[in-house]
Amino acid sequence: MLQTIINAWKVADIRKKLLYTALILFLFRIGAALPVPFVNITGSGIVGDVTGAATFMNYLVMMTGDAFNYGTVFAMSITPYINASIIIQLLTVAIPYLEKLQKEGEEGRKKISAITRYMAVSLGLLQSTAYYVYLRQSPNGYLAPAPDGNPYTGFWAFFQAAAIVLTFTAGTALIMWLGEQVNEKGIGNGISLILFAGIISRIPTMFIGFYRDIDKGGLYFLFVPLTVIMFFIMIIFIIWMDSAQLRLPVQYAKRVVGRKMYGGQSTHIPMKVNMSGVLPVIFAGSILSLPPTIEMFLQNRLTDESWWHKFFNIFNQEKSVAYAAIYFIFIIFFAYFYSAIQYNPVEMANNIRKNSGAIPGIRPGKPTSDYITKVMSKITLLGALLLSVVALQPVLFSIIFHAFGKPVSGMSLGGTSIIIMVGVALETVRQLESQMMMRHYKGFLD
User: Fold this and answer.
1) How many other C-beta atoms are found inside a 10 Å radius of the C-beta of residue 444?
2) Which stretches in the chain have pLDDT values below 70?
3) Are the C-beta atoms of residues 82 and 41 closer than 8 Å to each other?
4) Beta partners for 250?
5) Reduced 3-state DSSP string for the chain
6) pLDDT 10s digits, 162-210
7) What is residue 175's predicted lDDT score, i.e. its pLDDT?
8) How many CB atoms neighbour CB 311 within 10 A?
9) What is the pLDDT of residues 12-22, one digit of tens each?
10) How far apart (Å, rounded) are the C-alpha atoms in residues 53 and 33?
11) How many Cβ atoms sit within 10 Å of the Cβ of residue 151?
12) How high is the pLDDT of residue 49?
């Protein structure tokens, strides 16, 4: 990877793209630290005052690189865009109009992208409003008082709410624009790189937590190095999992078109073991974070002996084995769900047949689609199990550490974060390699 970056830096055109991408990421980090008017969050931030470790707010802090924790301009980050993209992908299966657009080529994709952007801004507005309501209701004084020292009322209350909500929403739109600029003039996927930069920014805080834990002595001398080793093992495992694939053999028959003969060769259809990427983990984590988030708003009204309190404790990822079991089931479910909506075995079988191809030993038509369905089912299960290993390892370690009464600060960087970081890094390096390959062949042809 380092050699690829060094070689790419030597090419003037690619170097400009790398510098442009770095500039965009630098601007993102400035916006992630720039405070919003009338918001005054200091100390450990809003999540530092929340007891639940698996709340939706913790998830947002992870996705935004602490911007959500301190109410900055980019507090919403790209989460509205990610949510909008997921919703549109799901709706393309249910709404014929979107399905038709998806099959119209470049023009259709542009229209779907525009719809996704509008939905992302709408979700950003909704999410910003909910965030403002939480800040206003909090007794910690996160909102600045009026100029005369009294709470905002009347027109000033409306002005304050509009300024905060619109600034958060504008931050969402600006981040989407920055991501698109990277796609057009930089290297890599802009949205993914912004998400990558947000997660990477939390690593120094994680190591500071490690240092403080080591100072406590005792079992921390064992748990902290074990956590660091675990992260390195997870990175190696994710790299292996990302490159693992099943090659489905396909034999094409010879056919004559005009004076030329086509086909007659053997090839394969590459099927990645982890077809759905990190999405099953994100879906499962988002759903399981809702009960602790509800508890956060109701914690002053619940007693330790109440049924609701016991129910919410199931979703405490630091203490509950049941949470790990439910998390595992959800990852398996969403892996199958996502592969079902993304891949159509019948369409794949028809495409093979139209090109005069066949899977050796399998008859064309329905037998081929049934065979592909069977293979996809097995490979999806394997990919989901491997994904579960990465996602659940930090959860299980956290449960063990809390059982000894020795929670480790570095566990805040979970499996989802590591999968995203490694996946984005690998994809960016692949794009660099393809850019250099294109220039190599261009020079050869010239």
Assistant:
1) 7
2) 1, 47-56, 148-152, 254-264, 292-293, 295-310, 312-320, 402-415, 439-446
3) no
4) 267
5) CHHHHHHHHCCHHHHHHHHHHHHHHHHHHHHHHCECCCECCCCCCCHHHCCCCCCHHHHHHHHHCCCHHHCECCCCCCHHHHHHHHHHHHHHHHCHHHHHHHCCCHHHHHHHHHHHHHHHHHHHHHHHHHHHHHHHHCCCCCECCCCCCCCCCHHHHHHHHHHHHHHHHHHHHHHHHHHHHHHHHCCCCHHHHHHHHHHHCCHHHHHHHHHHHHHHCCCHHHHHHHHHHHHHHHHHHHHHHHHCEEEEEEEECCEEECCEEECCCEEEEEEECCCCCCHHHHHHHHHHHHHHHHHHHHHHHCCCCCHHHHHHHCCCCCCCHHHHHHHHHHHHHHHHHHHHHHCCHHHHHHHHHHCCEECCCCCCCHHHHHHHHHHHHHHHHHHHHHHHHHHHHHHHHHHHHHHCCCCCHHHHCCHHHHHHHHHHHHHHHHHHHHHHHHHHHHHHHC
6) 999 999 999 999 999 999 999 888 888 888 888 888 888 877 877 777 7
7) 92
8) 12
9) 888 888 899 99
10) 23
11) 11
12) 44
Burial class for 313, CB neighbours closer than 10 Å (0-12, 13-18, 19+) = middle
* pLDDT of 163: 92
Residue 16, token pair as written in the block: 């400009």
Which residue, 70, 77, 62, 58, is CA-closest to 127? 77
Q: Is the pTM of this model over 0.85?
A: no
Residue type, 213: D
CA distance 139 to 125: 24
- Say what the pLDDT of residue 258 is: 60
Neighbours of 258 (CB within 10 A): 6
pLDDT at position 446 is 46
Residues in CB range of 54: below 8 A, 6 or more apart: 288, 289, 292, 315, 316, 317, 318, 323
